[in-house]
Amino acid sequence: MIILAPSLLGADFKNLEQDIKAVEQAGAMYLHLDVMDGTFVPSISFGMPVIKALRSCTDMVFDVHMMVEEPARYVDVFRECGADLICIHAEACRHLDSAIAKIHQSGARAAVALNPATPLSAVEMVLPLVDMVLIMSVNPGFGGQKFIPYTLEKIRNLRKRLDKLGLDTDIQVDGGVTLENAGELLEAGANVLVAGTSVFNGDAGENVRRFLQIFEEHDGRLKRGI
Q1: Is 76 known to be catalytic?
Q2: Tens of pLDDT, residues 181-195
Q3: I want to staple 177 with a disulfide (CB 3.0 to 4.6 A). Which of 53, 56, 150, 195 is the partner?
Q4: What is the pTM of this model?
């Protein structure tokens, strides 16, 4: 399944509930929530109180991307606040295997993220343990950045590796995702696209529908063997 995950960082923080409702009603299934601690990444975003407050606004999957040092410390509390999918960075974990296990023990799905320059080998041993791998296609910490081209080959290589292992693990891409490059990312093997600026800049509902149209066209080509 191909999924669009609008990133809350791109929304209007004066009208979060309104923006969330707009993308949900347009058909987005995930809401991507970037938690930044000012240490692992330069920025500070939002944390538990915001996520807990937003949980009552929507039934969308809360895809919590933890850009924090030693994220295992916060797994249980984010789960309690409503996280359905918790993504941790391989670079931020001293013991990645146990951090993934803690996420699953909480009842959430587990994902591992890789920064652009981090090789796929960093997650090779845990691929069978995770539900999703997030390929960062910008250096994390700020929204609105341009897609880093070399990450496209990284997506292709990860899809080949997952296929070889017989795993149906999702591949998520975050950073510089636009209506113009979405098709290319899907062709490379991604199936969960995070988009902030490209969704919330302008008519969010219409932008979601345009992304979903691209997804439908991609599925149609696959069914026709093109």
Answers
A1: no
A2: 999 999 999 999 999
A3: 195
A4: 0.95
